[in-house]
Amino acid sequence: MAASGLLYLLGFGILALPLDGTAFWGKSAFVLSTFIWTLGEIVNAVNIGVFIARHSPVNWRASFQSFIGLFSMAGASVGPLVAGPVIAAAGHSALWAGTAVACAFWGFGALLLDRKDRSSTSEAWDR
């Protein structure tokens, strides 16, 4: 999940750069950005179920799994409502920089959780 966060950070971070969409570099950067964050999507989609199951209590795993789709759709619904005013007030670069920072927090948090898991005993997974 930390790798997913890093790929999102890089992909969305590129969009925060001042790019000219008509220049070759600008078009190439958009393509590169899309490729990178799509890899993040793939890594996330493949691993999120295992991540949630591994980090939730046994008796709540099914409930937590069911919320993945709900929260994804809520984000898809609320995202444009939040992004519009951000773009109007601060521009596209600010929106993508904020998105990249949020992804950095996600990736860093997943990395810290992984380190905590590795330092604990294997008995912790028997909860």
Summarize the structure in short.
Helices cover 82% and strands 0% of the residues. The chain is an all-alpha fold.
Structural write-up:
This protein is mainly α. It has one domain (2-126). It is built from four helices and no strands.
Q: Give the overall shape, derived from the CA principal axes.
A: globular
Sheet having the most strands: none
Computed over alpha carbons, the radius of gyration is: 17 Å
Order of helices and strands: HHHH
- Stretches where pLDDT is under 50 for at least 5 consecutive residues are none
Helical content stands at over 70%
| Tally of individual helices | 4
Topology of this protein?
Elements: H1 2-16, H2 24-54, H3 61-90, H4 92-119
List keywords for this structure.
127 residues; mainly alpha; 4 helices; globular
